[in-house]
Amino acid sequence: MSRVAESGETGRDQDAAFVRNAFAKIADRYVLTNHVLSVGTDILWRKKVGRMVAGWEPKRILDVATGTGDLALEMQKVCPEAEVIGSDFCEEMLVHAKRRGVRETLVADGLNLPFGNGSFDVATVAFGLRNMASWDEGLAELHRVVRPGGQVLVLDFSLPRGVMRRPYAFYLNKVLPKVAGVLTGEGEAYEYLAGSIERFPSGEAMLERFARAGFAERKWIPLSGGIASIYTGLVEG
Asked: Which range of residues forms the domain containing residue 161?
């Protein structure tokens, strides 16, 4: 399995075939590995997202790149009256999401969602936009499927600033792939993960991409010292 090419080499942000293959191989151990590598912090991040989404009182929610369904399950819990659909382009991941209790799942590419314009009140993507072949196209598609007045929320890794940046880079590039390799047997997939986090735009750079996609009322919420971030944008009427 070859490493993903740099975006400058391909003209795209990620190699979609590589990403699909990598996630298919780690699907069985994905949830456990995430919790171990983040020391459970990823659970708290998703709970915060769930509280934010619940505050918008949506009736229909799309969780894009749902993976094994962690965020979709949280939203089912905090928005019990809402319809929650979890979509992902990796069918192996959705098998686990369904087993874990995600009620509605759909195999779908985040760059070509099979829904009409304005079909949802809220669309979310947690740790998935970074893996799409085009970040701008992914944001544009999220914008398209949400109704005017609805919200889009992205949760993903980011890079901390100041004194935390160097030790975090060491963890990403040296520690994380080795620990993940032991847990999953697929250390190369997590070497990709480390590189993708360093390339992924964060903070103001991500808000600029939200602006280009047409979102209003753009917000950035750093989490845990900046190692993850929540971004939200309003779809204007």
From this structure: 7-234
In this predicted model, what pLDDT tens digit does every residue of 49-58 receive, in sequence order?
999 999 999 9
Residue 151 lies in a domain: yes
**Both structure tokens of 96:** 């686990």
Q: Does residue 103 belong to any structural domain of this protein?
A: yes
Q: Rounded to whole angstroms, how far apart are CA atoms 125 and 107? A: 15
Put residue 146 in one of left, alpha, beta given phi > 0 → left and psi -120 to 50 → alpha. Answer: beta
What's the pLDDT score for residue 41? 87
Segments in the chain forming alpha helices (H):
7-10, 16-26, 30-37, 41-55, 70-78, 91-100, 135-145, 165-170, 176-184, 187-199, 204-212
Residue 124: inside a domain: yes
Residue 126 lies in a domain: yes
Indicate the number of domains in the chain. 1
pLDDT at 33 over 60: no
pLDDT tens for residues 64-93? Answer: 999 999 999 999 999 999 999 999 998 988
Instruction: Name the H helices within 15-100.
Output: 16-26, 30-37, 41-55, 70-78, 91-100
Identify the DSSP state of 172. Answer: I
Supply the pTM of this predicted model.
Answer: 0.85
